[in-house]
Every structure is written in C-alpha cells, then in structure tokens.
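help with this.
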Amino acid sequence: MVGIAAVRSEDVSGELQRSTARATALGIMAALAGLMFGLDTGVVAGALPFIATDFHASDALQGWIVSSMMAGAAFGSLIAGRVSSQYGRTGAMLMAAILFLLGTLLCALAPSPLVLIVGRVFLGLAVGLAAFAAPLYISEITVESARGSMISFYQLMVTLGIFLAFVSDSLLASGQHWRWMLGIMAVPATLFLGIVLILPHSPRWLMMQGRKDHARRVLNSLRSDEEVAEAELADIQARLNKSSDAGFGLFRSNPNFRRSVYLGMLLQVMQQLTGINALLYYAPRVFQAAHFGVNASIWATTLVGLTNMILTGVAIACVDKWGRRPLLILSCVIAGLALLGVGVLLEVGASSFEAQIALCGFVLLFVAGFAIGEGPLVWTLCSEVQPTRGRDFGIGCSTVTNWGANWLISKTFPMVIVAMGAASTFIMFAAFNGLFVLVTLMMVPETKGVSLETLEANLFAGKKLKDLGR
C-alpha cells in the first residue's frame, strides 16, 4: 500500500502524509488508556507502606490490596472481547474510562481495606478493558510501516503513567498522604473520558459489522488517498470472506488460529515471568531489603519509573527499524543478566553504600532491558498475529492470560520472597528471562513492515509461527 502512494504525484504524497499524521494523532489519544493503566499500576507501590500502617495490614492483606486490581483486570479482559465486538473498540474504552473514574474515587475515599479492594477491582476492570481495546484500536487504524512504533507508544504511555505515579508518591510520601496519592488519578481519568468520546470507530470493526460505507469514510479520513483506502478495504473484505466462523467458533474449527491464540497467551505468561510487575508493585520493599530507608526507597522507585519510560521511548524509535525479534532477544539477555546481578548482591548482603549503588544500578539495567523489548513488543506482537475474524477472541485470550499471571505473581510475591529469600527469588526471575530467549528463537515471527492481512494469510496457509512474516 505504501508502494502505491510512492508512485503517485507529489500532491497526493502530501495528502498521504497528512492522513498518516491524523491516524497518528488518533493513536496517541487512544494510547492515553496506557497512561491510566500505568498510573493505577504505579501508584500503589508508594501508597502501600502508608496504607499498611493506617489499616494495620498484614503481608497477606497487602497482597490482596495489590492483586485485587489484577483480578479485576483479568475479568475485564475476559469480557473485553465481547464488549469490543458488540460496541466497538471505542465503546470498550468508554466503559473503561467510566470505571477508571469510579474506581479512583472509591479508593481515595475508602474507609476500610474492603472498600479499597472493591475500588481497585473497579480499576482492574477498567485496565482489562483498556489494555485490550487500545492496542487493538491502534493496530487497526495505523499503516503497517508505523504500526510497531504506534502500538509501542501505548506501552510508552504505560511507563509514563508509572513514572508520574512514582513522582506523585515521592512528593506526597513525607506527609504519608496515601489518599491524595490515589485520588489525584481522577484528573487524568476525566481527561481520558473526554478524549474517548471523540474517537471514530475502527474501520476493521465497521467492516465486521457490515458497515462498509462508514468504514470507507473513516479510512478515507485516515489515509486521504482514496486508492490506498480502497485497496485496504478490499484486503479487509477478502480476509472476512475467507471464513464465516469468528471468535470461539474459529478457534474451535481452525487449528491454525489456535496456534496464534496460544502464541499470544505464551508471550503474555513469559512477560509476567520476567519479574517486572513484582518489582514495580513492591519496589520500595525490594530496596528496603537492601537497607534503603522508606523515603529513599520510594525515590529509588521513582528512578525505576523514569528509566522504564526513557528506554521504552528508545524501543519506539527502533522497533520498525531493527525489527521485533532482535530487540526482544536483546531485551531478554539484558534483563536476565541484570536480575542475576540483583540476586547475587542480595545473597552476599548489599549493606554498604557501594553495594547499594550497585544494586540500584542492576535494578535500573533490568528495567532498561525490559523496556526495550519485553514490555512493548509483547503487546505489539499479540495485536499483530491474530486474524481479523478472530482478533477480539485471540487478543482477549492473551490479555486475560496476562492479567491472570499478573494477579498470581503479585498475590504470591510477598510470600515467595519470605519463603525463598529475595536473592533466590530474583535469580529465579533471571532464569525465566533466559527461557524467554528460547521461546523467541523458536516461535516468535518477525512482523516488521508486514501487513496484518499478509500475516493472516501466512497463518492460515500453515506456515510455522516464526515464519509468518516471510
């Protein structure tokens, strides 16, 4: 499709560039779902020590407070496919925006741990819906040459949200104002609600609903060049005509589709086993284990968030140039070696100032490694490898898997770190990063610059998963 545009006049090329800019702008607005995701993920790390003090929360109760959002997100992901299929990707994001606002208010005003947990379940439902719908929406409105960068931009918004939450926590930590830490999230939640109301429906979703004229109008507004838009519509229609099955029906009847679903689920499990969310949720606790003070631990956690955000920006710059596989392998190697360093330092006792600096350096190196590949690229690949008629179901399965694994790890981490010790826990996570390298080499396709329709055709032709982009 880009080739068609290249041979047209300079005038039309200008139109195509403007249309891509509009698609980019809409993608950025949709990616604010990731900002909300990150804010609600990151804020609990700094608030938790003060919540525990006010509510006299045990380790087990702290685990429930943290993991309740993941449980809600798992359920939100479970229903996200149906909501997205029936009401569109924008409809799912609208529901998420309302739940973000309600959950934030409940958490900030919670008189008891039970109400706080209910509020975090609401936030989890919102995150589950948004994490499903936003990357899917972005992948469906963006041209293939920029698709990797744009879906990764969603992950950048997640990391920005985490960083801003950590900064907010750090500024409010001296006064132990955990209610303000949680309540300030109402401002971006309201902004996100207003933005979702102006997003157009995805052209692919409109085509699945039989609304071809509406899809054409939206795609023309995104591409401007009618020839390019018509070619894209024809590709979408051709893929839709290939099978009358969709969703679970396609999963049950087509073994090739099952392969893409299982790949998406496996990638999400591996992402959680890297140890990133255990670190983000409990970062102050990890630093305290290395003899940092409470306030110093929270500021060190803020540095983690900053590193995560900056290196995700590097991933965005590189993903459509270097490709998915090289970045993912490099990411796993860096993250694994860094966690091994964390484990060794904790084993020997990082009590000296020099050892504390080294520990902080290894943690930041791990976060940097995760941010350049394991973080953004898993969501990118899960959005790319699913076929049109099975996209809602396939991405729904992978997102549910993500949050199920996320919940399990966040719920058990406080107990695991007590039972195994901090050192052994992080060495275990290092080993999982090594395993992720093998999974990437054996199963992950290179999707750089390949259209969604080509990936789908290769999948249904029975090509090996790692060869889908060839």
Summary: The mean pLDDT is 82.
